[in-house]
Amino acid sequence: MSEQLEKRISNVFKYRVPYADTDQMGVVYYGNYLTLFERARNELMRSLGWTYKECEASGWMLPVVHAEVDYKSPARYDDLLEVTAYVKECRGVRLEIACEVRRSGEEAVLAKGFTIHCFVSTQTFRPILPPQEFLEMLK
After folding, report:
1. Is 70 annotated in the active site?
2. Is the N end or the C end of the chain the one with fewer CB atoms within 10 Å?
3. CB of 9 closer than 8 Å to CB of 48
4. ∠125-118-139 over CA atoms, to 5°?
5. Would the pTM of this model clear 0.70, i.e. be above it?
6. pLDDT 10s digit of each residue in the chain, 139 long?
7. 23, 70, 78, 79: which one is catalytic?
8. CATH classification at residue 108
């Protein structure tokens, strides 16, 4: 299956920035955006009827093999963020999940990026084709 999914399958995750997520400059530390992406990905999977726990129980995992973040404007302590995660592409053994971070109620993107995952067997840690149920869910 080679398909550009262009935001058809998405979920919005809300997150209030705690003080612990900020750096000395008072903005969200750059590395924490990947943690936000992970949280949003988990909620996206849950909204689709899958949890990572269920994936692993079914014999497959989705480790990150590549990640990118483009920082546009800083988020700060106590901002209420909306992190939109969407399935951008599923091709072969790879799955791309894109994310956009905004302040709640605002149009401007604070950060955007994506992670690329590889379907792997929990037994062998070798790449496998995505389960048919997963592909059907993407349609």
Report:
1. no
2. C
3. yes
4. 130
5. yes
6. 334 444 478 999 999 999 999 999 999 999 999 999 999 999 999 998 889 999 999 999 999 999 999 999 999 999 999 999 999 999 999 999 999 999 999 999 999 999 999 999 999 999 999 999 888 888 7
7. 23
8. 3.10.129.10
